[in-house]
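Chapter summary example: a protein plus adenosine-5'-triphosphate.
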Amino acid sequence: MVSYIIRRLLMMVPVLIGMTLITFSIVHLIPGNPAQVILGETANQTAIANLEESMGLNEPYLTQYGIYVKDLLQGDLGTSLRSNAEISTEIWPYIAATFELTIFAMLFAIFIGVNAGIISAWKQNSWFDFLAMLFALIGVSIPVFWLALMEQWIFAQELGWFPAYGRQDNRDPIAPITYLYVLDSFIHLDFSRAGTILKHLILPSIALGTIPMAIIARMTRSSMLEVMKSDYIRTVRAKGSGQFLVIYKHALKNALIPVLTVIGLQTGVLLGGAILTETIFSWPGIGRYVFEAISYRDYPVIQSGILVVAFIFVIINLVVDILYKIIDPRINY
Amino acid sequence: MAEIVLELKELHTHFFTESGEIPAVNGVSIKVHKGEVVGIVGESGSGKSVTSLSVMKLIPSPPGKIVSGEMNFKGENLVNASEKRMKKLRGNEISMIFQEPMTSLNPLFTIGNQLIEAIRLHQKITKKEARKKAVDMLQLVGIPRADEVAGEYPHQLSGGMRQRVMIAMAMSCDPELLIADEPTTALDVTIQAQILDLMRNLNKEEDTAILLITHDLGVVAEICDRVVVMYAGQIVEEGTTREILKDPEHPYTQGLIKSLPNMHEREQQLYSIPGVVPKPKMNSVGCHFAPRCEFAFERCFQENPGLYALGNQRQSRCFLHEDTEGKVKKHAKADIGS
Ligand SMILES: Nc1ncnc2c1ncn2[C@@H]1O[C@H](COP(=O)(O)OP(=O)(O)OP(=O)(O)O)[C@@H](O)[C@H]1O
Ligand code: SF4
Ligand SMILES: [Mg+2]
């Protein structure tokens, strides 16, 4: 197992190098002078020269890339042009916000999706199967922004069950530790605050989790149906076991292998950019951070945001690979 | 004779598909006595597997359904048995092993886990005792390093070893009846002989009745006491192994025996019955074998022959057993020839 993980980690190295090359090139792929583009049409020559100097744009590309990677290795993501703050410290609360939302959205998606998929396969062609697959079809085709707006309208505005915006009650903000607010409120042993924060999570989680949920449900169903036809399932039946053991032990574990791939991909997608959802729910996540940076032409932030998201993607891939290995003893590479 | 363990009476298992109703098992009657090894032989598609899965009530349903008939297991008609009752019987009193040892074990659980599960489904014993029993069973079926193998996954074992594991699993609760659906077909010849030996020993030692399905008459000669020959969902001949091999009555059985390789060692070309088993159809007219039968005459295409009783548990489904006065006679082929 350990050697497997080490091999996987080594395989990540070229991917990471590729990623830094791409984010590095972002600045240089803009037509014209990057400093000029960043500062805008009206900027004067001294300001441009100063920026070029401070960003090291006068050095040869290779040197610039070397410095960029060296800085990254030391955890230095550069300085935001807009706020003048260190990006590596500034970015964490945004990552944490996205992270927390993604976790809840995916928990929702996995729990409902996997179970609906199992029951649909179990009771194939029943009314449950029919309804579940109809919902799944609607789920994958529904525009997320529309779903988010409907949720806000019904559950926040009309019924008043959940707040419509933000991560917390801004009149009484939490003293952040990890910036994962649910975790923080448990660290503070402040359970009523945990309740409020969870309430803030519900609507955006559902909005964000609906597409993955639908995809997972369909994947689980088809994978289960496939597995249920296999010889080893017939063997389990021939042993005299009941449906429950057949489905939840033997079939599910096998059926989960392809579902796991989908879960990993969807988690990556959510982490990468839920800009629409984050905007509608005023969720201060990484998508919003990068989005705003774009409108300010804050290139160091754009670079870092993309790099961080790509990095998280790679990590998720690693986790999925490790989970494969745990589930399937045949994997050996 | 010993008590009857399994008695199928006029069993009909049909599949209801888009292209119509398929009588895959079309009125099959078979008796299996305690300690007896009964073979079902026939080419691919003759309904052997559907017959055996019917007994376990593991026919994929839909589209399959037991439409009529009886399946009496120690006097209890399983056709009416509830799923709950069947769960108690499966793997406990009636066990089954399958043709495909490579895919019949769950790849994600250890051999031990799957054996222990089979044991604990029917015996109220602790995990530890079950594990010990599992290892004992593995030893019994001749698996070396049984203790280690229990901790291994199916992909780490060869086909022959996996089939031994399947047999260990099937025998772990000491069943009255073992149904083996082509247990050796996927294995090479030496392994095949070992597996058959193993089954014969279990049959002798535990007095387990075995219903052995195969399309290989060599396997039948090796292990069976009695043989039922199936064709297109029906029994066409039944007799002791000796009778069937030495003295086949039905033209189909004769064809099967003629195509056995070892009886024709010197011949260049192996004989094979021309054509293939037809897909069973509802209300088909004439002998099912007629299109391929070298003795077929007019009547064979107009009427379905019934089974002609030729003695104690000896029967054959062929019009040639009827003489000119409508009486039953043996040795149909010899008479035609003269
Ligand atoms: N799931 C199914 N759906 C429809 N028809 C089926 C199904 N399973 C079996 N049949 C029909 O039943 C007939 C008998 O099949 P069966 O598997 O019993 O043959 P067999 O004698 O075991 O052949 P083999 O030697 O290939 O295993 C086939 O001709 C097929 O048309
Ligand atoms: S009944 Fe006719 S066709 Fe059928 S086996 Fe006998 S001779 Fe051949
Ligand atoms: Mg078969």
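Key point: The pocket of adenosine-5'-triphosphate (ligand 1) is lined by residues B 15, 17, 22, 24, 42, 44-50, 60, 63-64, 215, 279 (CB under 6 Å).
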